[in-house]
């Protein structure tokens, strides 16, 4: 998922949500002592707070359900939440703190560069980490048994987005890109995927011209689609407004493969200007009974339509709870069990495997859609493309 290009100074991690003394890995305390999972979530800027809010809602809803079903062998499951604020150094410090507090595993994180830093430290500490939302293929430098991922790899999702562009007749693509490992990786995936079909990708630097100047460069490029590979709300929101108001660009498709239009703050800031901007979302065509029930609970918690990020959070805790019930709280036993997972999640049965070029245990693959907000009703989503069936009639 997207990550800001700048980070604030790294304040010390927040204090635990409840006081306790650390427990060594694998210790079995007296009955009633909580089983703890550390949760990494961006809750303050420059992190994407909207995504963090949905991720945390999913994590907490799943913990509530696990405890309603008896917890982990009669012991309550508890989250120790740490705000990463999209800062890799802060995330690393949080991983170290949580490891010292005896958590059985780590969950969460949205921003790819932050999750990458957390994964490296978790691997070094031999602390199992189930990443919820970060999609960067290279989540770790080397293969590791400590880290698994619920979200699809960026290369898989963004190739689906490339298929959508080709299916809708777009081969001359411009990207408004900020400097970032994540955005550079996405640009490379799109370029390599489109090239065999005669597609081209032109990079427009968002650090250069103002929005009007970037519109001039876009008009000169002859591109039929502009993809927003940059931070939200800045510089994406003013750029969308500028393109919408430029008569030369009336026929240019604006796209956001990283998923910014999924969350309510996009609609709140852009209104009608934010409609008809296709984005990637990781939801099935129809939710099953579990997903439907969880959707209703998440809607109640959030006061708005839950995003795919909230479902990723719920599925993360569901998987970890299943492992802890079967394997106990020993960290080595949890990490060794990734390949044996078969857990019913909100969006299908979750299993992990090794995928070429990806060093973590990967759910291959969650459902992938391309969707947008309906211009007639920006609060309503339309599915435009499905990775299993191709183009979908938006209704």
TrEMBL record:
Domain of life, source organism: Bacteria
Biased composition (Low complexity): 16-25
Biased composition, class Pro residues, residue ranges: 1-15
The Leucine-binding protein domain, residue ranges: 34-355
ATP-binding keyword on record: no
GO BP annotation list: amino acid transport
InterPro entries in UniProt: BCAA_transport (IPR051010), Leu-bd (IPR028081), Leu_Ile_Val-bd (IPR000709), Peripla_BP_I (IPR028082)
Keywords assigned by UniProt, alphabetized: Amino-acid transport, Signal, Transport
Family: Belongs to the leucine-binding protein family.
Protein name, as recorded: High-affinity leucine-specific transport system,periplasmic binding protein LivK
Record organism: Streptomyces venezuelae (strain ATCC 10712 / CBS 650.69 / DSM 40230 / JCM 4526 / NBRC 13096 / PD 04745)
């Amino acid at each position: 998922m997207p990550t800001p290009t700048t980070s604030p100074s790294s304040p010390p991690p927040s204090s635990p949500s409840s006081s306790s003394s650390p427990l060594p890995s694998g210790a079995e305390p007296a009955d009633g002592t909580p089983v703890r999972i550390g949760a990494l979530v961006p809750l303050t800027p420059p992190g994407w707070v909207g995504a963090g809010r949905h991720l945390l809602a999913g994590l907490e809803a799943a913990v509530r359900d696990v405890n309603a079903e008896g917890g982990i062998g009669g012991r309550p499951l508890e989250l120790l939440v740490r705000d990463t604020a999209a800062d890799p150094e802060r995330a690393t410090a949080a991983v170290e703190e949580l490891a010292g507090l005896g958590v059985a595993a780590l969950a969460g994180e949205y921003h790819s560069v932050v999750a990458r830093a957390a994964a490296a430290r978790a691997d070094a500490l031999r602390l199992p980490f189930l990443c919820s939302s970060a999609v960067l293929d290279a989540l770790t430098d080397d293969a590791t048994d400590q880290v698994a991922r619920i979200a699809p790899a960026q290369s898989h999702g963004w190739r689906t987005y490339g298929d959508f562009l080709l299916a809708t007749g777009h081969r001359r693509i411009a990207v408004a890109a900020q400097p970032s490992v994540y955005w550079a990786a996405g640009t490379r995936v799109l370029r390599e995927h489109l090239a065999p079909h005669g597609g081209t990708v032109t990079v427009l630097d968002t650090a250069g011209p103002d929005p009007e100047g970037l519109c001039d460069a876009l008009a000169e490029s002859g591109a039929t689609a502009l993809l927003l590979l940059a931070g939200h709300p800045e510089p994406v929101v003013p750029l969308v407004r500028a393109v919408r108001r430029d008569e030369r660009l009336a026929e240019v498709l604006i796209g956001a493969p990283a998923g910014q239009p999924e969350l309510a703050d996009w609609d709140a800031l852009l209104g009608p200007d934010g409609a008809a901007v296709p984005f990637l979302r990781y939801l099935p065509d129809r939710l099953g009974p579990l997903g439907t029930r969880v959707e209703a609970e998440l809607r109640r918690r959030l006061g708005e339509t839950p995003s795919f990020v909230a479902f990723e959070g719920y599925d993360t805790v569901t998987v970890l709870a299943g492992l802890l019930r079967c394997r106990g709280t020993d960290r080595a036993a949890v990490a060794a069990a990734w390949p044996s997972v078969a857990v019913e999640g909100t969006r299908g049965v979750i299993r992990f495997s090794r995928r070429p070029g990806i060093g973590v245990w990967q759910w291959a693959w969650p459902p992938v859609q391309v969707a947008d907000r309906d211009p007639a009703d920006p609060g309503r989503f339309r599915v435009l493309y499905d990775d299993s069936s191709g183009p979908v009639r938006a209704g």
